[in-house]
Amino acid sequence: MYQLRWLESVTLDLLQATAVANADLRGRIFTAMAAVESMLENDADFVGESRDKGRRFLIVAPLSITYEINAKRRIVTILQASVYSPK
Question: How far is Cα 80 from Cα 66, in angstroms, rounded to an integer?
Answer without folding.
Answer: 5
